[in-house]
Input
Amino acid sequence: MTPLAAAVTLLSCSVLVIRGHPGFETRLNSEVLSKRILNSAHLEKQLIRGPLAQARSKRTSDHIITDCIFMTSDEGDFYHKSTLADGTACGAYIFSEPDEIIEVHFSYLDVPCENGGLVSFVDGWELNGEFFPSPSDHPLPMNSRFTEFCGKRKVKQTFKSSQNVALIQYRMPAKGTSFGFSVRFIKNPTPCNVLFQSTEDIYTLRNYGKRSNCSVSTLFPAAVRVASLNIGVVPSLGRGIELETGTIHKCQKRGLDDFLQVGGSRGLDNANLLLADSVCGLDSKPGKHVEIIACETTTIRLVSSGAFDNSATVAIRQLTPEDINGYMSVICPSEELVE
Output
């Protein structure tokens, strides 16, 4: 069965949505772009900083879900009782720290299957039909990332996400139908895919010597600087000779199997990633070059063949109005704005 579609209207107003061809210097209308950056900053303050700040003071508590689109970074017990029965698909978006995964247990379920009643646990997030992590990056196939159920019964299974985000989607068939669930965060010693909540931080991506695609994504336009790089040099099995190669650019176009992509997209699926660059090599001091990603989603993606023990440390910060007068590495397309 096709999973419920989550119409996340609170996110629809966010961020920069014009595109120039990557590799060409593009200067945008300052007034339009400034408004979009400020909209993104306001949205981030409402949806990300707010829940995270609250989570510091009350990591475990009880919650009654009243909004169709609900976001939380809290552990605790959650409860929803329908006051309407209009067939709307809703979602509870859960996120934790980068080095945590999310455990969900349904305490009870009273959602009749008639009239399309349904509750679903999603391993990841869905926004406007796109998913994080992308299907090509997640360790599980898409049909294993959704578990759907309905009726009046106990759900014995405990669900765990593969990364720091998870989603409860639901469609209530009648007024008064309800369900409850609990959330617990568990430390993850080997995080791979991360949805970043901080607006300025440093993060290290690793493949732990495995064949994998790992990424860190933000839901805002961002400036990205590679602080250190070790990709495609150190063998996974045994230690080779580590020689500084410097940063090698356009590694994907060169046909290399291990590289770090920096780019952006309008949605969560990085299959639609517009690249600023793909880099590899061993460089402990890559310099001060910053990629400016003017997209709704910014992504740094580590592609690993498994032959090398790869890692990359990146500094990420949200764009500010002061960034708009300079060079843009990537600018994403817009249906709203006409050049």
The two ends are 41 Å apart (CA to CA).
